[in-house]
Specification:
The protein has 157 residues and is α+β, with helices and mostly antiparallel strands. Helices cover 45% and strands 26% of the residues. The protein has a five-stranded mixed sheet, with helices on both faces. The longest helix is centred in the last third of the chain and has 19 residues. The termini are far apart. The relative contact order is 0.21.
């Protein structure tokens, strides 16, 4: 019996990054989910989950990082949330380091200040200036979020 417990504990210690996209329900605005995200950031801190959420054009692209069970539990909760539809899992990968370690949840509103630099970044990774995460594959979506995070860090300086 102790072997089973040992295996469960070992598998629970894997750190993963999960990426998904979804469509916001009509009428949902950035200010509406800011309150939701404040609560989510607090919960994520308690569960040692980090990540980044990009919102624009009525769509979400989100990366979640943390212990495998915690991230999977959170994703299943998110997927059932009626404030969005068409939740598509883009990737899950084991990671040795986090890309968004300083943020329990960083939010970027694409519509708030679409700069030329952000549009260039999107064009580089998706081939379009319009935000449509559902059309991105896992690798470009992940690279886009990493580059966007780097840009956000520079803007914060």
């Amino acid at each position: 019996m102790s072997g089973l417990t040992s295996n469960v504990n070992k598998s629970d210690m894997h750190t993963i990054r999960l990426l998904y996209s979804s469509d916001a329900q009509e009428g949902l605005r950035y200010r509406d989910f800011m309150t939701i995200m404040d609560k989510a950031a607090e919960t994520n801190r308690e569960r040692a989950i980090t990540g980044m959420l990009c919102y624009g054009g009525g769509q979400f692209l989100q990366a979640l990082e943390g212990e495998r069970l915690a991230v999977n539990t959170l994703y299943h909760h998110i997927a059932k949330d009626t404030r969005h539809t068409n939740c598509q899992l883009l990737s899950i990968e084991e990671i040795s380091s986090r890309d968004f370690a300083e943020w329990s949840m960083k939010i970027v509103d694409w519509n708030d200040a679409v700069t030329a630099a952000r549009q260039t970044l999107l064009l580089k990774h998706s081939g379009s200036r319009q935000s449509d995460p559902s059309q991105m594959t896992a690798q470009p979506a992940s690279a886009f979020l990493r580059d966007l995070a780097a840009m956000e860090r520079l803007l914060a300086e």
